[in-house]
Amino acid sequence: MSDITFTQRNIPAERLLEVNHLKKYFPITSGIFKKHIGDVKAVDDLNLYVNEGETLGLVGESGCGKTTASRCILRAYEPTAGEIFFRNKKQEYVDLAHLSDKDLRPMRPEMQMIFQDPFGSLNPRMNIFDIISEPMLVNGIRNRKEREERVVDLLKKVGLRPEYMVRYPHSFSGGQRQRIGIARALALQPRLVVADEPVSALDVSVQAQVLNLLMELMEDMGLTYLFVAHDLSVVRHICDRVTVMYVGKIVETAPTEELYYNPRHPYSEALMAAVPIADPRLQQDRKGLPGEVPSPANPPSGCYFHPRCSYCKDRCKAEVPELREISPNHWTACHRAEELSLEGLKK
Amino acid sequence: MTDQKPLLSVRDLQVYFHLDEGIVKSVDGVSFDAYKGQVLGIVGESGCGKSVTMKSILRIVEPPGRIMGGQVLLSKRDHPDEYLDLTAMNEKGKEIRAVRGGEIALIPQEPMAAFSPVHTIGNQIMEAIMLHCNVNKNEAREICVQSLKSVGMSMPEKRVDSYSWQLSGGLRQRAIIAMAIAGNPRLLVADEPTTAIDVTTQAQILRLLKDLQRQREMSILFITHDLGVIAQMAQYVVVMYLGRVMEKGPVDAIFHNPKHPYTQALLRSIPSAQKTTKTKLPTITGSIPHPFNKPKGCPFHPRCIDAIKGKCDVELPVEYIVGDQQFASCFRYEKNEVNNR
To answer: Which of B205, B239, B260, B281 should one mutate to test binding to chain A, selecting the residue with the greatest count of A CBs within 10 A?
Structure first.
């Protein structure tokens, strides 16, 4: 393991996860010989970090690569390039991107995922006990008694009655199924939980319950979340910091309040302005962004956002902007970040 | 607005689904009025009956669903004081087919599934135009191009000959709106028109719908589960829960002075810019019951914090007047006047 541990690397001690230059390209092939004719750059040079005990929100529109990025971090997808440093239980930083499957196995219990669709993510032919205890079985907890005890414990934790253990997924509502999915993710006491749109399939009245549960569990179990979502008001409510993605790249990362009230990238500004506010007295004059999200297979030159950006200059069409720190902890990838005065949410 | 006659009046509508397992009362006594030039929002969670209400207005409820009672009245174009009862029409008859697309047009939820992939969008829009307007093919094409132009599609002369799969989600949604307005309808029924698209595109589409509504003095019946969209779009809001209207009123009253416990709880439970972050959100306990075991009495009583035992779980509340044009069906307001309309 020595060649893949990077304790000597300069990673601040509070980091649980640090992702550097992560890339995931899906090849486009054509013809009977599957000639490689291009790439869908789903994730293109992603840099982010998550501190222990915090919630990082990853937001963006559909197709921006947020799900692909989160799956690469868990090595559910094989990343094309890049480094993913994760601090293991021995407090060493391990590069997940370059671990062999065998070395990765002991790391898996520490990182778990909560899925978006509570209907598709539970096997209808397994009962709740089997669903929640399967990760334990896979990871060597063979004693049925012990597993049962832990399942009872987990069900109580997520607010379900332990008797439900013998039932099958079809007898539960969407919100309850999502709780089951959460219990399964927590079965191995992970430290990092990647939640991929955990509440977007739920009804408004149930959504609040699940958000509260996620926040409670975070405190009780000392979890760290990577929270992938497109609903900006949900993200604002539970995240400490937020990263905005656009066509496979990060355009801005900042502490939540800072990003919402003082965005420094035109795309973040447009995103804030586009969210309908549930208050008829705040009638928004929505300019709306012109055009649509470009395809990651054929992105525009320079800054990917320039064809839709109202602040675009010649430089933006030619040069790809670097992600840079313009004020402490506030990163943006815009050539004109300093000169622009952008509008966020109004207090 | 009170002295004006409504364009569409839904009265005590009941739509039941007769399944082998029993009867599901999807819509159980729903009443509301839509006026000319108004955006009426219907908001509710899944299973509240908002889509079935929409389908009954157009008479496209699929069996085993059946309209069991109530009326859907549409004022006549030439004589606004006279009404057609849509529920009395044969659902395959000539009359209702003249209404569909001609008087009331639908913007469906799924822009992907709404167009046939083997016909050009122009052909499909022209088909609708030729059904409702007495024009030949060339004129229909002209109207079609105009219509595409009015929804903000660039190069409409070229796009008219493209297939739906050649267009992006936002453009496809625009093409559907073009098809809906091509027959010059008086009422546009939009069933979750923006749920399948991204926020930045959603903002464009919402703006487009608002502009069209103003230009053409159309009415829009806007169905959604998104309270943010409703607040920004609607002038009058109907809040539904399990097949019943819980509360209806002007948008400002619904959001700033809600009277029904369900509306109040719903608004409290959404995260918003005004609330402090990282705090516990007030929730509504429990989950939406399955339509088969709908609770007796007020459908919301098992989740309601103010439920009165022996009353809310036995009787169904009627609509009480709780403000200007605002009505709530809750026993809390029992002493108020009853809405008799």
So the answer is: B281
Instruction: Mark the ranges of chain A whose per-residue pLDDT is less than 50.
Output: 1-8
Structure tokens at B288: 């939406």
Candidates A176, A278, A288; nearest CB to B287: A176
Q: Do B179 and B190 have their domain in common?
A: no
Is residue B284 in a domain? no
Nearest chain A residue to B228, by CA = A278
One of 3.90.1150.10, 3.40.30.10, 3.30.420.40, 3.40.50.300 is the CATH number of A2-239, namely 3.40.50.300
Closest approach of A4 to chain B, Cα-based (Å): 37
Q: How many CA atoms lie within 13 A of B15 on its CB side?
A: 31
The CA distance from A144 to the nearest CA of chain B, in Å, is: 31
B318 within a domain of the structure (yes/no):
no
CB-CB neighbors (< 8 A) of A177 in chain B: none
What does the block give as tokens for B306? 């103010």
Q: Which of B243, B268, B293 is the last residue of a domain?
A: B268
B62 and B27 belong to one structural domain: yes
Point out the residues of chain B with pLDDT beneath 70. Answer: 1-3, 273-274, 341
For A33, residues 6+ apart whose C-beta sits below 8 A from its C-beta are none
Same domain, B1 and B123: no
* Interacting residues of A109 by C-beta distance below 8 A, sequence separation 6+: A135, A139, A188, A189, A190
Q: Where are the domains of chain A?
A: 2-239, 240-277+285-347
What are the angstrom distances between the C-alpha of A138 and each of A18, A134, A168, A319, B163? 27, 6, 21, 49, 49
Structure ipTM: 0.79
- Residues in chain A, total: 347
Rounded-to-integer distance, Cα A17 and Cα A226, Å: 10
**B261 shares a domain with B145:** no
pLDDT at B292: 79
pTM of the prediction? 0.85
* End-of-domain residue from the set B184, B203, B219: B184
Inter-chain contact B232–A284, Cβ cutoff 8 Å? Answer: yes
Cβ contact, residue pair B272, A215, below 8 Å: no
- Angle at which helices B137-150 and B169-182 cross, to 10°: 130
Range of the domain at B65: 1-103+186-268
In the DSSP assignment, the letter for residue B279 is S
Q: How many domains does chain B have?
A: 2
pLDDT of residue B219: 92
Q: Which residue, among A61, A236, A292, A347, would best test binding to B if mutated, counting the most B CBs under 10 Å from its CB?
A: A292
Distance CA A286, CA A339 (A): 23
Chain A residues touching B168 at Cβ < 8 A: 292
Tokens of A297: 């297979």
> Are A234 and B228 inside 8 Å of each other by CB?
no
CA distance B266 to B257: 13
Same domain, B180 and B193: no
Distance from CA of B94 to the nearest CA of A (A): 39
Which residues of chain B have a CB within 8 Å of the CB of A208? 269-271, 281-284
